[in-house]
Amino acid sequence: MPDGKVLVTGATGFIAGHCIDELLTHGYAVRGTVRDLETADVAHLWAIARRTGGSLEFVETSLDADAGWGRAVDGCSDVWHIASPVPANVPKDENEVIRPAVEGTLRVLRAAAASGTVRRVVMTSSTDAITYGHRRADQVRTEASWSNAGQTAPYPKSKVYAEKAAWEFVADQPLELVTINPGLVLGPLLRREQKISMEVIRMLLANKLPAIPRLSFPVVDVRDVSLAHRLAMETPKAAGNRYICVDKSMWMGDIAGVLHAEFGPRGYRIPARVLPYWLMWVGARFDKTMRLALGNYGVPVRVSPDKAKQELGWTPRSARESIIAAGESLIRYGIVPPRGRDKDANPLTAADTAA
């Protein structure tokens, strides 16, 4: 069994759950942070611990408070900082997202640096910190690129500021940092929860869109994101590096095509019409979310995962497999109403994961 204990922040999150699975499966002891020990939904995580026979515990702490972080990192050899605020809607004040992302990251890093035991922090960032606001949209972006924060929405801006704050902090600290920069994270849910990253699949599969805007997404599987975190922790030369983690970029229409081919024969009606720019422009006058997306209409997101493949030995699943797995789990947990032959199946609930 590997030595040391790994702290995973934001343990109840979508990516964090798979990261905990990855760690326990490979013999690591895990401590996860939750905001409230009494109310946290961790049944699915205890189920993973039972399946793997791994060591799992939880500690109460929050990104917006100093209390508890010293206790959280105590005795840990590594930290996976995954927790970050993800707004369900566009906030009235962008600092509602930016402030907790930056200050929470610095709280984690200060505690890790002061612990005397933490060797490396692996931080979940995003391709959003890389791809926004560039003049040449056709250029393939690498880890050397940073988004122009002045031309981004609040969430991407929070990822830029939080990651830059992290790199600035460790510059004069004896603490190793690696950042993982995933794209649109899809794949199987571990429990019944509606995640922002899965909204594209949910809306297409539930036929909630009358037409499909021409938007580009760099797709990656959540299981491969968790693998990248482990490889970033275990690979000595990874320290001080950023790693883009995607399989490939896809237009939303192509994602819809994958869903149609797989789920159409089962009774699901996937939209096929393209939403023209002019109609999205009209909608953007009344919808703030659509207004933020308008600047990305027809702009391909091009990023290269070559560095992660070459330096970490990381090999992702196909985007198609991730899209289908996402759709299957949304149906299984009843988040998307079943159609056709799937109506005969009983959707799972969160309690089923604890069985």
Q: Keyphrases for this structure?
A:
355 residues, alpha/beta, Rossmann fold, 3-stranded mixed beta sheet, 12 strands, 39% helix, globular
Structural features, described:
Helix 7 (199-205) crosses helix 9 (252-263), helix 9 crosses helix 13 and helix 10 crosses helix 11 (288-294). The radius of gyration is 20 Å and the shape is globular. The strands form three sheets. The chain has a seven-stranded parallel sheet with strand order 3-2-1-4-5-6-10, with helices on both faces. It has a three-stranded mixed sheet with strand order 7-9-11. Strands 8-12 form a two-stranded parallel ribbon. It has a domain at 5-183 and 221-246 and 302-316: NAD(P)-binding Rossmann-like Domain (Rossmann fold, 3-Layer(aba) Sandwich), CATH 3.40.50.720. 39% of the residues lie in helices and 15% in strands. It has 13 helices and twelve strands. The longest helix is centred in the first third of the chain and has 21 residues, at 95-115. The mean pLDDT is 91. 46% of the residues are buried. The chain is α/β, with parallel strands linked by helices and 355 residues long.
Distance between the termini: 26 Å
SS-derived structural category: alpha/beta
Strand content: 15-25%
Order of helices and strands: EHEHEHEHEHHEEHEEHEEHEHHHH
The helix content is 25-40%
The level 1 CATH classification of the domain at 5-183 and 221-246 and 302-316 is: Alpha Beta
Number of helices: 13
Poorly predicted residue ranges: none
Q: Tell me about the biggest sheet?
A: 7 strands, parallel
- The CATH architecture assignment of the domain at 5-183 and 221-246 and 302-316 turns out to be 3-Layer(aba) Sandwich
Radius of gyration: 20 Å
How many strands in all?
12
Biggest sheet strand order reads 3-2-1-4-5-6-10
CATH topology of the domain at 5-183 and 221-246 and 302-316: Rossmann fold
| Average pLDDT figure | 91
The shape is globular
The CATH homologous superfamily of the domain at 5-183 and 221-246 and 302-316 corresponds to: NAD(P)-binding Rossmann-like Domain
